[in-house]
Amino acid sequence: MAENWVDERDKAILETIYFCENCNIVLEPGDKEVERHKKELPHHKMRKVFILRCGNCGNIVTDSHAQYSPERNQFWCKNCIAETGVQNFHTI
Questions:
Q1: pLDDT tens across 37-82, in order?
Q2: What angle do CA 2, 16, 51 make, to 5 degrees?
Q3: Closest to 52 measured CA to CA, from 86, 72, 75
Q4: DSSP secondary structure letter of residue 45
Q5: HSE, side-chain direction, 13 A CA sphere, residue 26
Q6: Quick one: how far is CA 92 from the chain centroid?
Q7: How far apart are CA 32 and CA 79, in angstroms?
Q8: How many of the other CB atoms lie within 10 Å of CB of 89?
Q9: How many CB atoms lie within 10 A of CB 55?
Q10: What sections of 2-84 are H helices per DSSP?
């Protein structure tokens, strides 16, 4: 595997955001609300969400709608995995 595999994988991660499932809001890193949620609202369910680019079709998806293949060193959206098949996705 290439030595720059981490850099290649990280290129697919376009943005990181937070989502509060209780408030149903999206928060950007550095937003005052993120700190407020951590300190004052620890019972709220906060999720870190990655915005990714599919390595196969190029569509923009969230990490919950994608999967990472260490064999390919790429994130693929679930649509591409369904079309290709899971076995083919995990082989080169």
A1: 989 999 999 999 999 999 999 999 999 999 999 998 999 999 999 9
A2: 75
A3: 75
A4: -
A5: 7
A6: 22
A7: 35
A8: 18
A9: 20
A10: 5-11, 32-40, 78-84
What is the largest distance, in Å, between two alpha-carbon atoms of the chain? 47
**Domain regions of the chain by residue span:** 5-89
Distance (Å, whole) CA 57 – CA 80: 7
Strand runs labelled E in 1-92: 13-20, 25-27, 46-53, 60-62, 66-69, 74-77
Closest by alpha carbon to 54, among 63, 45, 43, 42? 63
Helix (H, G, I), strand (E, B) or coil at 34: helix
User: What spatial distance separates the first Cα and last Cα of the chain, rounded to whole Å?
Assistant: 12
pTM of the model: 0.79
